[in-house]
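The passage that follows is intended for readers who have already worked through the single-chain material. We present the inputs for a multi-component assembly, then the predicted structure in tokenized form, and finally a short commentary. You are encouraged to pause after the input and sketch how you expect the pieces to fit together before reading on.
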Amino acid sequence: MPTNKPPNIPSSEITPPQVYFNRRMFMRGAVLAGSVAATGFLYRRLNPPSAVTEQRPKIGGVVTPPTDEAMRQGFRTDEALTSLADITNYNNFYEFDTEKRGVAAAAQNFVTRPWQVAVEGLVSKPRSFDIDELLKLAPQEERVYRLRCVEGWSMVIPWIGFPLHMLLKVVEPLSSAKYVAFQTLLDPSRMPNQTTGVLDWPYVEGLRMDEALHPLTILATGLYGAALPPQDGAPIRLVVPWKYGFKSIKSIVKITLVADQPPTTWNIASPNEYGFYSNVNPNVDHPRWSQRYEHRIGDFGSRPTLLFNGYAEQVAHLYDGMDLRANF
Amino acid sequence: MKDTHFAKLALFVNSLVPLMLLLWDVWRKNVGANPLEFVTRTTGMLTLVFLLLSLAVSPLRRILGLNWLIKFRRMLGLFAFFYGCLHFLTYIAFDRFFRITTIPGDIATRRFIAVGMTAFFLMLPLAITSTDDMVKRLGGKRWALLHRLVYGAGILGVLHYYMLVKSDVRLPMTFGFLLAVLLGFRAFARYHQTRRPIPTGLNRTS
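Having made your guess, compare it with the prediction:
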């Protein structure tokens, strides 16, 4: 049997050089395009831009106090509002994600009904409130507050809510109650990042009694005229505008009146960086960065940070005679 | 790897892909609520990625026997420096808003800035002496010795990242782990040097 017959390829079938080189060029182009697509895909996966804006149910019957009076009390500011997209896509809410732009997506399906808030401790009438009950407890009021994050950025947010003192009045605090402790929901099945140890869960915060009773201190249930989005602390959160943002605890399930200063999450995590008071103060630097300036989200550049976040007129008297450097 | 020229071109183009996408996102205003932070974080991360890639070349080459990998090390290192420059410029231009006088104070209050800057300036002589001509002028041995600075840049770069995060240190720890593996391999290889002769010449170290 004849083997190894020389190939009998007619010359017409031999690839002409220009086609061969074209093929080479084509292959190179394909490799280049393919690798660029793969690199781009990888980059996008590792560094995704975010945008989740969801319509929330409107809150009806919102009360707006007369402007002059509201300005005097610090309930309003005439500064430009931060956009809804920025407020709802740039969140520190470690229960969902430690990445600020990842929180909105991670919290999107967070169910906030039914929802109970227990108010207990040193009170005459401890009880649990349903979220719908809380919404009717007091007139829902619009408050336009500055929010200053300890990280050096700030926003102006049109909250909807009611003063915390209105809720405290209902349960009748005992005279032995000196502090108010707050607690966020603990449910790793609904707050996925609670399975990690990045913070001690549940998130806890606290205020001194006079801070809790101050008219600027509110429980917020909405923003921009609609119910609070999950990433901003739905269904109900604290807002204390003269303190760094982390004091304004989100998705509250428990409020306890206590005699002694309660533990607070960031203070537990890093006691020399985050104090119990955490009042906004440009003169007291964070150990790792200056608090002198802030970057207003949506602006270009930076602006000086104000003592008590600009609410000194309303709250400075709470700290008369106190060393703000020692009690940071 | 026969077609080095094309492979280098492909690596060059691919290394620019993240920058192109970043510019595209900035142009389309798709960089979130805090564009400055987004750009700073992205360029910083890319610096570390390219530093680790350039540090991975020698171990991979040894383990897999792929000697041609060495041809890409310089470009990877230069891209680390390039993204480091962008990161540094973002800080000067936007974080400080050209308030140059505030920089010394900022370094004093934010220690991680000092660490990051040191890492960046360690890369500077490496970029300057990256040309063939410079290798010749310095001599292979001295050049290789100088380029060990890259270990310092890597360690300080990762430390810089670790120091700036608030509490979720998982990602900086991952970078740290990878760096430890890459540097650990070198220590290990050096320890076993006597048992396995290694190729001589300037490609030996780092």
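Commentary: The radius of gyration of chain A is 28 Å. Chain A has two domains: 17-45, 59-319. How closely did your sketch match?
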